[in-house]
Design goal:
Muramoyl-pentapeptide Carboxypeptidase, domain 1
């Protein structure tokens, strides 16, 4: 989510406007009413063709995307849409003339419905949330309709789908956050749910027989990914204990049934070695909060980094009294809260950040952009809260975390926390990453649309993306409401990742990449 500071008063409904080449906000055409996926609404002309601009074209573009095209659903029937229509017609034995008449409409409706029904959310789709598009969203909408949601199956995760997801989550004992992750997918597929989409490393403490709740549900889902076949009920009973011990034994861990840092690392495919002298993990992206009693490779990395600063610790992967003292000494030397807890601020300081959540040094300027520096800057904000309007110089601050605003706030958490919380919204995160990493104030402090219009942002295709590129979500390439930074492929998991400030109630995080948006490369 982002706040359009320069247009905040005028743009009161996200997605209800688009921007012209001059930056003027104009009403965007709404998709036609009618059957769930259909181009045959009475509101649409008998033949849809190049040059048209309306909701029928938007519907056409979404259906083409469901069948494999990669075009923007902006309601403008231009050359890209024409080419996609011709390609579809050729592939389906139709006259390849670019005219969407009755025969092409019938074929597209049928193909889109078929495509939207063949995706397995759990095995083929990344986490979904507002702004996602494509066949995964269509499948989600169909499954929600099976629970009485009554959604239009259009492949667009908008406010209606967000409400339906939250209602489903609430009724199934899940965290009602609108994010369709493993637990929500399992519940939609007929699992018992009972858990939230949590990360065992960052969100959960030590688990063992007798534990219960959403962290146990997440553990059970992850174990099922290794073939455990558990019922996801949030109860750490004998069956879960056996599955944990079997997993530990097969991964060279002590088979004690206790899910600590080492077992969590192994479950997520990270190194589970407790000793060693190399920094094998990134504390900011691969480890949760560390404190006395923690163990495993995250602690080994912490100890190695502290030793580089003169601590003189034995690198044994055990967070004992000596490591606690070293952490407190480090915190005191950096002006941090001296509590022995290694959270976002302490981690950032260990990686060279300032005595707070971010580094506030002088940004570089001029010359080519070093994407590595941009990504390092983005990483330094991990763990900071999402704040509506955060990072937009509302009170004269430069780029970086700031208090936000409750003007035009649309979040579900009340009262609005933005006036009293320091953090970033999505475009604020992108702005800060490029300011501290490249000396560029992208969009001159404005919203996601302002960033897409910046002369330094160049449109690219999804296949051309490189780490440091940015992806916008919305109704068109300049009618957007959310943005993320592509972090590249994680070396330990092989998954494409992103840095994101998602919504109120969450922190800036490093998660699997969502696709289906509009890609841009930034130049100096």
């Amino acid at each position: 989510m982002s706040l359009g500071l320069s247009l905040a008063t005028a743009l009161t409904a996200v997605g209800a406007f688009t921007a012209t080449a001059t930056g003027t906000a104009v009403a965007a055409p709404a998709p036609p009413a009618g059957s769930p996926i259909s181009l045959q609404s009475p509101a649409c002309p008998a033949t849809i063709q190049q040059g048209e601009s309306d909701g029928c074209v938007t519907q056409l573009q979404m259906e083409l995307n469901l069948t494999g095209a990669q075009i923007g659903a902006d309601g403008q029937f231009g050359p890209a849409t024409y080419t996609a229509v011709v390609n579809f017609q050729s592939a389906h034995g139709l006259t390849a003339d670019g005219l969407v008449g009755p025969a092409t409409k019938n074929a597209l409706d049928s193909a889109a419905l078929s495509a939207s029904g063949t995706v397995n959310l759990s095995t083929s789709c990344a986490n979904l949330s507002q702004g996602s598009t494509g066949a995964c969203v269509s499948t989600l909408q169909q499954q929600l309709n099976g629970f009485g949601a009554g959604l239009t199956v259009d492949g667009r995760f908008g406010p209606g789908t967000d409400t339906a997801v939250r209602n489903f989550q609430s009724s199934h004992g899940l965290v009602s956050d609108g994010i369709v992750g493993p637990a929500t997918k399992a519940a939609l597929a007929g699992g018992t749910g009972g858990g939230s989409d949590l990360n065992l490393l960052s969100d959960c403490g030590q688990l063992q027989q007798g534990s219960q709740g959403s962290c146990v549900s997440t553990l059970q889902i992850v174990l099922n990914g290794y073939g455990a076949g558990l019922t996801v009920d949030g109860q750490f009973g004998a069956g879960t204990d056996t599955a944990v011990r079997n997993f530990q034994s097969s991964h060279g861990l002590t088979a004690d049934g206790i899910v600590g840092t080492g077992t969590k690392n192994a479950l997520y495919g990270l190194s589970s070695s407790g000793g060693g002298t190399s920094t094998t993990v990134d504390l900011r992206t691969q480890c949760g909060t560390l404190q006395s009693g923690a163990s495993g490779s995250c602690v080994s990395t912490l100890q190695t980094m502290l030793n580089n600063l003169g601590a003189g610790l034995t690198v044994d992967g055990q967070f004992g009294p000596g490591t606690d003292t070293a952490v407190r000494n480090f915190q005191s030397s950096r002006g941090l809260a001296v509590d022995g807890i290694v959270g976002p601020a302490t981690k950032n300081a260990l990686y060279g950040g300032g005595s707070g959540p971010i580094s506030t040094g002088t940004p570089p300027s001029g010359g080519p952009i070093d994407d590595t520096k941009v990504l390092t800057a983005a990483k330094s904000f991990l763990g900071l809260p999402y704040v509506w309007g955060g990072g937009h110089s509302l009170r004269g601050e430069g780029p970086g975390p700031s208090l936000g605003t409750c003007a035009d706030y649309t979040g579900s958490i009340l009262p609005c926390p933005a006036n009293t919380t320091v953090g970033l919204d999505c475009s604020g995160l992108v702005r800060a990453a490029y300011w501290f990493g490249a000396g560029i104030d992208l969009g001159n402090g404005g919203n996601t649309n302002d960033q897409t219009w910046d002369r330094r942002t160049l449109p690219i295709s999804a296949s051309q993306r490189q780490p440091g590129d940015i992806e916008f979500f919305g109704d068109g390439p300049h009618s957007t409401h959310h943005v993320i930074i592509y972090a590249g492929t994680d070396p330990t998991t092989g998954a494409d990742m992103m840095y994101e400030a998602q919504e109120t109630g969450t922190n800036v995080h490093y998660v699997s990449l969502r696709t289906g948006g509009y890609w841009y490369h930034v130049v100096a």
